[in-house]
Automatic annotation (TrEMBL):
The keyword Signal applies. Residues 1-20 form the signal peptide. This is Cellulose-binding domain-containing protein. Keywords: Signal. The keyword Signal applies. The gene is st15. InterPro entries: CBM_49 (IPR019028). One of its GO terms (cellular component) is extracellular region. Residues 24-108 form the Carbohydrate binding domain. GO terms for molecular function: cellulose binding. PANTHER family: CELLULOSE-BINDING DOMAIN-CONTAINING PROTEIN (PTHR36560).
């Protein structure tokens, strides 16, 4: 019985991993900081094997912009959601195997925001 349960659990985990979309890696680097504010450079990297023609970048938590122009090189979709610029699609997408796009933001707090990617279009 234990072996069947273990087999089922492992099979389910492998299936979930196979359908999981993890082709975007997001890395942040602190650029500067002062009096409760910080500026961050963010690299979106395509670690998959297909070009990416669009994605929604979601600020899950910690994003505090004092003005809309405190985040640059992404298109605002509202409600802490951002899209890749249209020129990426017009130029063949974010290249497979390590194609990157960099954006930045100035946060009205000393820590970085937490970003995730969803609605990835190939």
């Amino acid at each position: 019985m234990f072996k069947k349960l273990l087999f089922f659990t492992l099979t389910f985990a492998l299936f979930a991993l196979a359908i999981c979309d993890n082709s975007i890696k997001i890395t942040q680097t602190l650029s500067s900081a002062w009096e409760g504010h910080s500026t961050w450079n963010v690299v979106i990297e395509n670690i998959g094997d297909k070009p990416i023609f669009g994605a929604t970048i979601v600020a899950e938590s910690g994003l505090s912009l004092e003005r809309p122009d405190n985040l640059w090189s992404l298109d605002s979709l509202g409600n802490n959601r951002f899209g890749l610029p249209s020129w990426i699609t017009q130029n063949g997408g974010l290249k497979a195997f390590n194609g990157t796009h960099t954006f930045g933001y100035t946060n009205a707090q000393p820590t970085s925001a937490v970003f995730s990617a969803t609605d990835i279009r190939y």
